[in-house]
Each structure stands twice: as structure tokens, then as C-alpha cells.
Amino acid sequence: MDAHRAVVVTGVGAVTPYGVGVAPFWAGLLAGRPTAGPITRFDASGFAVRIACEVPAFDPFTRLPPRLVRQLDRFAQFALVAGEEALAGAGLLGSPADAGLHLPVEGVDPERVGAVVASGSGGVEEMNAQADRLRAGGPARVRPYLPIAMPVNMAGAQLAIRHGLRGPSYAVASACASAGDAIGAGLDLIRCGRADVVVAGGAEAAITPLLVAGFAAAGTLSRRNDEPERASRPFDADRDGFVVGEGAGLLVLERAEHAAARGARALAVLAGYGTSSDAFHPTQPSPGGRGAARALALALDDAGLAPTDVHHVNAHATATRTGDPAEAAAVRAVFAGHADAVAVTSTKSAVGHLLGAAGGVEAVATVETLRRGVVPPSQNLDARDPDCPLDVVHGAPRALRMRAALSSSFGFGGHNAVLAFAASG
Hints:
The protein is α/β, with parallel strands linked by helices.
């Protein structure tokens, strides 16, 4: 890749069902510790699905100013906390200004720092709560913060406001491919010269009565209510759907020359991005995973990588009956004779499906996997489905020398987004 087009990852941040921060997220993945349990966000006793992967003991008032907390839906709170970790890790946060804002460090032009933060549902918790207040008490009971707490764009917008990031700022919405597409959009912004730095990823807080009921009605959720720790089982013959999760995953993307000039450490290279549409069905993947295969091939081509350069794929792998075999077919089609040498894992087996934020947390996991040379195990793979003939890492982490790795995200509507990462050294 031309040096002037090279984009590196200089910071990562996460809020996941393992807690706040990348460190507990990575430790939980390596330990193979499940996070699914009974829903506590609301009374789910009358629901067909009563389990989820919740962020534990998250108190936004200990991490953000009280007035800002009141303006934010839970999904945006996750984004701001993860974003601050990513920016701090990249060495981009200076001392707090008079207003308490952590502005970019001296020497970094804030007009060249952007934020592209995706969500599948946005402020659905706020929307539902205010709808209840409207029904119970009339229009006067609706909070004035509703118009700024509900919109999908407000995670990135509030992150930009808090840190004075005056470059491009917007949201991407492509269902469960949203965060992957947001990171791809950040890559494109830097490559085309519109920004030097972009904070990109996704945030979601969809463990709400309406969405859990809706996904359950659609038949996409696991109903293993009595054994939640075994419910998320990607590629397993006995899988019965995904477990909904919540949280955020954000990357700091930076023009490689810009990062080098300020002495920033590159965690990985974001080498390529592939996106496609199945144009087939609102919920089902295209036959044989054709759309996913095209996105995988486009990401490799964009990165200048051959299939044999890749030894790891962080799979979308939701544990649905149709999705997993389609993805397996796509991987085998693209990697052909090299497919058996590709170590596959599913982060969703550990933290559930974070919907629009899934690609963000999985990109964080892929960066950590690549730079540490260890593939975390996929959980609950007791008997691999013969229709999913992949080398799925399970039982224990696997040490692996890797030049490059892919992170895949596929969404309802036929959206496909694949990110290609390469080692920085």
C-alpha cells in the first residue's frame, strides 16, 4: 500500500458485558468466560426470551458529568466512555479545558479529527421511556432531552462536542453491519484527505422490552433461558439463535504519517474495507453466502492481500440456523484451498450480539488478536455443524503468528462489511 494512503489504529476503547475497558474485554475473551444471564434491565418474566448479555454495574455518573448523562441515552453513554478510552490510548487527549472538556493535544488540528459512530437502534430506551410518559401523563410529561437523546447520530455528535472534534461527524446505519461500515467510512475519510484522525465504531443499548420481544417474535433469539451461559453457540449443530448484548467498541484511525510525526504507536494497520449488498431478502443471507463472499474478496483486494496472507477471521457468526452456514460457505469460497489454515472465532459466543455495535467490539478484538498473536476461543462449540466446515478455535486460546486478519459484519437487509487488518510491525 502507498505510504500516503496507509491508515493505522492508534487507540481502542470498549464497553462490553465484561465491563468497562479493553483490558477486561480481552481477559474475558481469553478466559472463555460467558456473560449471558437473566435480564435485569426490565422485568422479563412474561417474555419468551429472558436472557441477555448486559454490561455489568455501569454507572454513567461516575464517568461523565451529570448534566451530560441526563442528555444521553444509554447507547451514547457507552460510546463516550469507550471513545475516551480510545482517544486517551492514542495519546490524543490533553488536559481538561475550563469547561471540563478533554480537547485534543496541542499540535493536533481538531478540524482534521472526525467521529463516525454507528448504531442499529440509537436511543430506543429513551424513546420507549418517553412514549410511556406520554401515554401516562400527556405531552407535558415528555422530557425536553428526547430530541437529543434518541437520534442515532448523537453518540458521535456528543463525542465530538465533548472533545472538540471539529472534523467530519455522522452516523452510519446498516443494521448489524453498521459499526463495520462506520470504521470503513473512517478509513475512506482519511484516505481521501478529509481527515487525519477519525474515531470510528459503534454503540448499542437494545436490551429493552420492545426489541427483545420483537427479535424473539422473529425467531432470531436463543430460548435457552434455563442455561444462558450455553445459549450463544455459533457454528454448533445445536444452536438456536443469538443472545442480544450491549456496549460499544471504538477505534482511533489515523493517517500513518500523522501518527508517526507525533510519535504515536500503531497497534495495527487498517489495510482494507469491503462492502456489498445481497439484494436478496430482508433477513436471510443470499444463497451460498454470495454477498458475504464478495465483501470478503473486496476487503482483500482493497488491502492488497492474497487469501494466503490471512490466517484469522473474526466471524460475524450469530448462531442463527441460516447465517452461520452461509458465512462458512463464503469463507471457503474466498479462501479456497487455504480455508483450512484460517483460524476462525466468534466474539458473539462470549458477549452476545451487539447488533449495530457488533462490528466495533469485534474490530477491537481483531486488533488485539493480531497484535498479541493469540486467537480467543469461540465458546459453546460442542459439536460443529457439518454445514459449517471451518477451523473454529474452541476450548482454549490459540497462539498464532499472523500477518493479517479479517473482521466480518453482516446485517438484516443484506448489508455486508468486512475490515482487513494487518500487523503494524
